[in-house]
Amino acid sequence: MTLTDRKRDHLRLSLSGDVGSTIGTGLDDIRVRARALPERDLDDVDLSLSLWGRRLSVPLLISCMTGGVSDAGPINRALAYAAQEHRVALGLGSGRAVLDGSAGVETFKVRDVAPDVLLLANLGAVQLHEYGAADCARLVELCEADLLVLHLNAVQEAIQPGGQTRFGGLRERIATVCAALDAPVVVKEVGFGMAPADVLALLDAGVAGVDVAGAGGTNWARVEGLREQGAFQIAQAFADWGWSTAQCVRHTRAVIDTAGRDVVLIGSGGLRHGVDALKVLCLGADIAGVARGLLGAAAEGPEAAVCAVGVLRNQLRIGAWAAGAGSSAELVPALLEGTGGGNDQI
After folding, report:
1. Cα angle vertex 158, ends 168, 200, to 5°?
2. Would you list the DSSP string of 103-167?
3. Cβ–Cβ contacts within 10 Å for residue 100, how many?
4. How many CB atoms lie within 10 A of CB 233?
5. CA–CA separation, 105 vs 14, rounded Å?
6. Which domains, ranges and CATH numbers included, belong to the chain?
7. How far apart are CA 133 and CA 332, in angstroms?
8. Which of 86, 103, 235, 300 could form a disulfide with 97 if both were Cys (CB 3.0 to 4.6 A apart)?
9. pTM value > 0.85
């Protein structure tokens, strides 16, 4: 099966398959401390922030999802329209198909409809065995992106027939790209989360940001399991694999603060709505990422995507206001109650 076929399967199954994690994000165990008297007008709530040279109206990211196949082009453009309309960040899917020549860059070309958007190019970290810093710089340039995301997907690669499992020495390769690239480098998981030791290793490698992508949303082991019977049997054991999103955000915030690093924390993994986004921001994320929850709307076209992102943005703003916060800086743990679920002993 070609890379293009696999990407098309990933898109199809993400839209229609039963591919969710069987463990929760941990966010349902957290409550926002609702305020009956917010003491400000909703119109006065301003959650905007500057990030990597771009101004966002709210701390939201449409997370990296798709690219490299013709089906992905309209979806990326629909999401780009929505990102531009609401001034949120947008991540593109893996650009490996561009670098290996199996697909053109057309499905990633969105700058004409999203000139002001913080745009993230994306490549699997394991591909750094094949592609160096110059290739990464070329991908960023071709996508007209502001920064590069390197994604970690060890379990997915191991279950995927023909997957790449050469994860030895990747930290050093990531460090080389961070040092050589003019653009910032963010490293993310794909839905199983990161242990504190992973986060610390990435900080030492010089990353500009970490996207924890905790468990509770799309489970890429299950996606691969639905693509091939042999993989299906292996994938079943990993339906509840990983660190919950709430755990990841809390312990990653602690690692970053303890290390005293100026590193952006992206909280993602199974976020369903703006109140989930509010919770991860209060737990310590600088920006909240949503992926699969927007994919269906994007498949319907730009109008549906603009509407879906608008709903998410409004939910976040109303939730912040109704919790007594008026700015991104005021989204703090004191607005929450609850453990966040799972084992707190990290």
Report:
1. 45
2. S-SGGG--TTT-TTS-EEEEEEGGGGGT--HHHHHHHHHHHT-SEEEEEE-HHHHHHSTT-----
3. 14
4. 11
5. 22
6. 3-337 (3.20.20.70)
7. 37
8. 103
9. yes
Of 113, 102, 111, the closest CA to residue 4 belongs to: 102
Helix residue ranges, H only, 56-108: 72-86, 96-99
CA distances from 277 to 83, 247, 274, 295, 310 (A): 16, 14, 5, 17, 14
Helix segments in the chain, DSSP class H: 3-16, 72-86, 96-99, 133-143, 154-159, 170-180, 196-205, 220-227, 229-235, 245-259, 274-283, 292-300, 302-322
Question: Among candidates 134, 126, 209, which has minimal Cα distance to 177?
Answer: 134
CA separation, residue 188 to residues 70, 156, 194, 327 (Å): 25, 14, 9, 26
Block residue for tokens 């199996």: 102
DSSP character at residue 168: T
Q: What is the pLDDT of residues 267-303, one digit of tens each?
A: 999 999 999 999 999 999 999 999 988 988 999 999 9
Cβ 245 vs Cβ 26: under 8 Å:
yes
